[in-house]
Amino acid sequence: MRLMPLTPELVALCHREEPEPGPDPSWTELNDEDFRALALRLSDEADRGSLWVFAYGSLIWKPEFESIEQQLATAFGWHHSFCLDMVRWRGSAEQPGLIMALERGGRCNGVIYRLPEGEKPVQIERLLRREISDHESVDTVRWLPVHTAQGALRALGFWVGVKGRGTSLNQPLDRVAKVLARACGHVGSGAEYLYNTVSHLEAFGIHDRNLWWLQELVADEVRVIHGRRLDPSHPLARQRQPQSP
Questions:
Q1: CA neighbours within 13 Å on the CB side: how many for 211?
Q2: What are the strands, taking DSSP E only, across 63-171?
Q3: Beta strand ranges found along 168-223 (DSSP E)
Q4: How many CB atoms lie within 10 A of CB 149?
Q5: Distance CA 242, CA 132 (A)
Q6: Is 185 exposed, middle or buried (CB count within 10 Å of its CB: 0-12, 13-18, 19+)?
Q7: Beta-carbon count within 10 A of 130 CB
Q8: Element housing 59 (H / E)
Q9: Which helix (H) or strand (E) holds 52?
Q10: Nearest to residue 86, comparing CAs of 100, 106, 66?
Q11: Residue 222 and residue 204: Cα distance in Å, rounded?
Q12: Which of 94, 101, 118, 214: disulfide with 162, CB 3.0–4.6 Å?
């Protein structure tokens, strides 16, 4: 696997302790009945046979569900995009962050997981409770046509086609890099999220050129921000460190 400029040592510089801010009262939380109803609807829309889940970000490195098979898969018409605004989790009100969703256009290479046989509504509800918490996010859950070496199928996807409030679409990568290098919330930093995503995609043999370029930009930005905290003899201080004017 190729070496990433964004190293664990640089990622560690971005971490800081942030308090758990609690739920945002301006969003409408889903209750138990809402989760059950949504799970039943998605189950009714599902293809017959096994339940597949499409992973392109944190579900790859932190799935929190059991799977019995995994395959590489491509979703055409979508691409990785750091477009979800975060003021908690991996950002704060003082230093908002960004995490990934799928935005229109291009192609997205990821991994599909096949869940064990069981009642689909129960399995889907468990996934929903991990991924979303409010009514405003319901439309981002959908069945995605994906292509695999064995043929086409449909997989459940999360945070697909986000729009409106809480999103920042079509941002240039240099702007995203500045955000990710600075943002941190109570579960971790934006740099950590990016590092985990890129490194795990690479481990699966998936090389996303934009994400690779983004982690290079974030690595440079972290050195700019934290350069004064590094001993001049430290290897991280000597790598691609911009010169002072």
A1: 26
A2: 69-86, 97-114, 142-148, 151-157
A3: 184-185, 188-189
A4: 7
A5: 40
A6: buried
A7: 15
A8: helix 58-61
A9: strand 52-55
A10: 100
A11: 26
A12: 101
Residue type, 240: R
Q: Render each residue's pLDDT in the chain as its tens digit; 245 residues.
A: 789 999 999 999 999 999 999 888 889 999 999 999 999 999 999 998 999 999 999 999 998 888 999 999 999 999 999 999 999 999 999 999 999 999 999 999 999 999 998 899 999 999 999 999 999 999 999 999 999 999 999 999 999 999 998 999 999 999 999 999 999 999 999 999 999 999 999 999 999 999 999 999 999 999 999 985 555 555 555 455 443 33
| 80, two tokens | 């990785």
**Encoding tokens for residue 63?**
């799935």
Count the Cβ atoms, other than its own, within 10 Å of residue 17.
Answer: 6
Alpha-carbon distance of 85 to 235, in angstroms, equals 33
